[in-house]
Amino acid sequence: MAKTTTILKRLGALLLWVTAVTGFIILLVAANNDKESGVCKGIQVKFEGKDDNFFIEAKDIRSLLTKDKALNPVGKPIRDINIRTLEAVADQDPWVKNAEIYFNSKQELHIKVTQREPVARVFTFSGNSFYLDEAAERIPVSSRYAARVPVFTGFPTDADKLQRTDSLLAAQIVDMGRFIGKDAFWMAQVEQLMITTDRKFEFIPKLGDQVIVFGEGADIEKKFTKLLAFYKEGLNKVGWNNYSRINIAFENEVVCTRKDGVPPLQPAIPKDTVRQLVADEPPIAESEDSAEKTTAVKPPEHPTVAAKPAEKPAARTVVKPAAAHKDKATAKAPAKKTKTEKATPPKQQPKAVYKPGNKSVNTSKKQTTP
Questions:
Q1: For the segment 74-90, what is each residue's pLDDT rounded down to a tens digit?
Q2: What is the span of the domain harbouring residue 221?
Q3: Strands (E), 104-249
Q4: Closest of 142, 140, 134 to residue 117, by C-alpha
Q5: Which of 20, 161, 202, 353 has its CA 20 to 30 A from that of 360?
Q6: Residue 241: pLDDT above 70?
């Protein structure tokens, strides 16, 4: 009897579970049939993104689906609505990254939209502007909202299909825009970056008026870390407006060009020891040689030549010892000045080199500039 009772209890429990599952399936099928036999009553749009600044609105998505009467789902039986087709239409919006469509229990069409996130704004040579997302794909500028992202000017082309060099440049722009956008300090310091003709980058920071030569868009984090170290160890000590250009494109060093630097000091030469040669005045050495030659000439033995004319040249070539000494001193002075003028280099803007890890910047021997 005990075994029979146990078997009956197990059979009863099994029948109860089978009945419950069967009832659930019947209800599910009935609900599904009722849902498909129903009519779409409306469209609900929900946006997903990192912030609340959306470049498109719900009415834009609705207009994409309702402007074509053949595709408009409102008022149509749910069984006749192709959800895949509606998702493809919603994805045509350039700001839509992905769209998921489904019906809820109220027979409403729900659209969950994921928006494309811009990381940089680009201006071309012709003045056209567009955004680039993380996949380096173009996004048109929206009239409703302007994204707060780094701005790049001087992009070389307006073509939709980029060449290999332009695609590489666009990828570098995306990498730099992503790095700057994630760092609050550089986002506040770097507002606009310029693309040079050789496809390199420069920018003028908000704090300071010097040009930062960044070089190619490689080793981005390393270069910005080096620049930040130079800000802390260099510019905080000597001032932020002493340099016109700061080049961080080199490996493990920062090369700076002074804005109004003073050239190296030159040895002072007293004015009274310098004598400029006049164009009509013969050199001192030649005068002495001519004097020696004149004094060495003997008067001719011919009896017809008078003695007085021969004495005049001799008297004119007589040089006192003091005057000769003075002339020799003046003769050495111009030579000294000529040597000094040759040694003086052409005036250039002095440059300072800073290497991370050193507390000072090596400059010329006469100047010590951080």
A1: 888 888 888 899 999 99
A2: 118-258
A3: 109-115, 118-124, 129-133, 138-139, 151-155, 192-195, 201-203, 211-215, 243-247
A4: 134
A5: 202
A6: yes
